[in-house]
Amino acid sequence: MHSDLAKRFREDLLLSGKQPSTIACYRNAIAHLAEHFACSPEKLFEAQVRQYVLLRRQQLQLGCPCATVAIT
After folding, report:
1. Which of 2, 19, 51, 69 is most exposed by smallest CB count within 10 Å?
2. pLDDT (tens digit, 9 = 90+) per residue, 12-30?
3. CB of 65 closer than 8 Å to CB of 53
4. Burial classification of residue 11, based on how many CB atoms lie within 10 Å of its CB (0-12 exposed, 13-18 middle, 19 or more buried)
């Protein structure tokens, strides 16, 4: 994630009081999303992100906030 949007995302998370470990978790989740679809997250539609989150939850049985951030 090396774009103006990525910079803005990180700044917004910092401004909202997120801890560095939470920011790292979110960035990691976005990196996996980009890898899955082989494109920048900026080019994805909401339905694609939702589909991916549902898939990952089923695969890993996730319950952590990292898995739900993209849905909200």
Report:
1. 2
2. 999 999 999 999 998 898 8
3. no
4. exposed
